[in-house]
Protein 1
Amino acid sequence: MLDKYNRKIDYLRFSITDRCNHRCLYCMPPDVKFLPDDRLLTLDEIRTLAETFSHLGIEQVRITGGEPLLREDVVDITRELAQYFSVSMTTNGVRLKELAWPLKEAGLISVNVSLNSLNEDVFFTITKGKVKPVLAGIDVAIERGLFVKLNTVVSQMNLKELPELVDFASKRGIPIRFIEMMPIGRQNRGVIFEDQILEKLSDFDLRPVQVKLGQGPAKYFVTKYGNYVGIISAMSKSFCEDCNKLRLSCDGKLYPCLGSTHYVDLLKSLRSGHHQVEQLSELIKIAIYNKPLSHQMKDSTVDNAMNRLGG
Ligand code: SAM
Ligand code: SF4
């Protein structure tokens, strides 16, 4: 379906839980309060929504969170969504070692794994978690034939490690993307901008290339060793003009943009019995119609919780 600016909306990012086993500095406050289980969309509700989104022309779904692999029914959710969409996932990778194979069997095609440092101490400082299980998860996912990409949110804490992270990805033949920190949910100070990231990687002789790996807004470069490095410049450059995304929160609120405070409440509609495809469709069309031309995140901190809405 087209929005009012004629952008084709065919991609949904879906946060299936707000819970997480990490506490990344840029994402969740240490004392974060999670939603009670009965506020999350159930598998049955997800099934109804999948059918509706598919009718409206959504073709690709990225499962995210919170940490999606913490949901016990994540494999069932993946299997359900894979009947309608091409399905990918963004994860912190902690449970990927045990789940990569069942997820692949359920129809998952690709996985983006967050990796902010290879150094145990730095990794712990940023995420409050351990790096070893994540590294094991990445290797198992590659072995199982999933398309793997790495995501690194750049901060002063890992800036000097960027070349090592590129080497790590190169050895495995997988792309790595560096993300500018966004002011979502927490007051994030000290954004490292694209120019500084590129300067840190100057030894790799990065050459811009016109490739699109997945549906994300990353701009890609190729290193002198032939590996892809992406930069997601959410803050320094606007990529809103060709945005094709909607975002569904774990409690069933559909947002037209990550930086938007407008949403339609699909969970409320589902639970009040109005779950016929036509009625849900009308609500979804309202969200699409109200998709803003661009986000306003440069001007202010957005109060949306990244974990509920799914980064
Ligand atoms: N837990 C999973 C993970 O970390 O990959 C999935 C959810 S996380 C909210 C999705 C993505 O958002 C991750 O790549 C994460 O690094 C990114 N993210 C979270 N907070 C961010 C922020 N303030 N600025 C930029 N990216 C952020
Ligand atoms: Fe958890 Fe992902 Fe947020 Fe980190 S970025 S706290 S791993 S949801």
Protein 2
Amino acid sequence: MKKILQDLSKEEIAALVASLGERTFRADQIFLGLMQGKKISELPIPSALRASLLETYEEEPVKIVETLVSREDGTKKFLFALADGNLVEGVFMRNNYGNTQCVSTQVGCRMGCKFCASTLGGRVRDMTAGEILSQVLTVNRAEGGTVKDRAVTNLVLMGSGEPFDNYENVVRFLHNVTAEGGIRIGARNISLSTCGLVPEMRRFASEGIGLNLTVSLHATCDEERARTMPIANKYKISDILDACAYYFEKTGRRYIFEYTLISGENADEAHALALAKLLKGRPCHVNLIRLNEVKERSLKAAAERDARRFLEVLTQQGISATLRRSMGSDIAGACGQLRFSRIFPDGKIP
Ligand code: SAH
């Protein structure tokens, strides 16, 4: 595979352009063109420079090969082909406060959560910073956005993959997507979700990126958590809570817990009370969501009524919480339904 030009920051593109003996303004043209979602062959630069870039860099690191539109809520699911033939999925949702894109950070995932489709085939590979960014640039362009007037205003790193299992690439992506002069999506409009990799959560607190840190909790004690999340055998809930407190101390940002309601597993009133006890007094918010069923898995969603009761108990206990409605479930675009990729070794997408 060739290198990915979108991995580079504006400064790195300037250095590259200088090393090719080109004038400085070419760097601005290249950077702006990439931010507009252009392929290398579409960049407004002399053809010799385009040709020399194409010797080293991928023409189009991420290509939309399929778009599905939800008839229920207009949510779009995109199938992206990477240059090596791997495929990842992403989702675009229009809301009244802006438009949110859900991006993938790895091809597949190795965390093994029992409720999630992304991990069924394991982890195939990490995505590079530029591949992650190109999902945003490509969708922004496809949805009629520009660099100044963006179609994508909010990002959630909640597609396939565990962002903190691909730490360096994800942090590089975050610096580039928030950078001045680029597409510049503000950190406050970005949510990163982790299954709770404690050392990386702590490390991230010092990166100077004040985004919304979201942690997939899904249980109130380690034994129960380990039934659906293998990572619970490695990191304790108490250590996750300490890492969250540290994040708050360093960034001043409150954090969010994801809690997926699974019938017969974690969704009765006793669980709600235990969760409230665990989180009482913490500067956090709880996002409840009913399980989106995955056909390879036997787990069932909690009933709507039980979900509402769970929310009621949390609220009565003074915990800030919301019950999210699922979007895009008719196109398997809802949380936990994004798939691992198929690989086409010859790089040709059928
Ligand atoms: N690996 C990261 C990013 C995934 S984000 C993480 O674990 O947080 C996707 C969110 O959807 C996570 O909170 C995840 O636990 C949740 N999820 C996974 N499968 C789900 C399902 N079938 N129904 C509802 N939520 C699910």
Protein 3
Amino acid sequence: MYGRQSEDKFKAARERMLRYDLRGRDIADPRVLAAMADVPREEFIPPSHRSQAYSDGPLPIGNDQTISQPYIVALMTQELRVNPECEVLEVGTGSGYQTAILSKLAKKVYTIERFSDLAESAKTVLDKLGISNVEFYLGDGSNGWPAGRLPSSGCFDRIIITAGVPEISEPLVGQLADRGLIVAPVGGRTVQRLVACEKKTDKLISRTICDVRFVRLIGEHGFQQ
Ligand code: SAM
């Protein structure tokens, strides 16, 4: 796709990422590592930054938004404990890279983005990669997935929020199955705590993983701007 030399460079960079940035830290789930090995991250990066596709940090994707650092994508995915029966809601499609990783692990991924050009470009890349178990929705993800289009169970087994939120919104908690898991960056406008929460009889039991810096979720139950 990018010529033989570039393909070889991306492959070597992906192997370096897996070895040092993921396994070298605390990413040990073999399914997560296999998904990170399988998805070509370079496809999700604009041409201006494509050569840095496997660098250990976030990169710009347009609209003042970012594709998250590979380690954070892997960490959130590992904490989400996705299995092949899971229906997963992702709030914040962005480039679609996290969506693609989840699609390798889940039965189906439902993903919401507020910018139409990001959603369109993510859809184009996922189509190109032959990923077909993803449904897209354009709108405010803080309100959850549209009620008329929920999975047949009426809720999601897993929810991942990939933008910083002041709190996990009521509509999202309402759409999570009992015993379901949510992973999200919760906190202020620039720094948040990455939390993993389990829903037990309508309450979220929350565990903090680490401090993170995410772009803000802008919406009715998010930040105003
Ligand atoms: N996971 C993405 C990836 O792999 O590229 C990165 C997501 S980026 C850090 C956060 C995304 O959340 C942005 O694309 C942003 O436009 C989106 N976003 C912000 N507020 C939103 C909202 N209320 N509903 C849906 N998406 C939102």
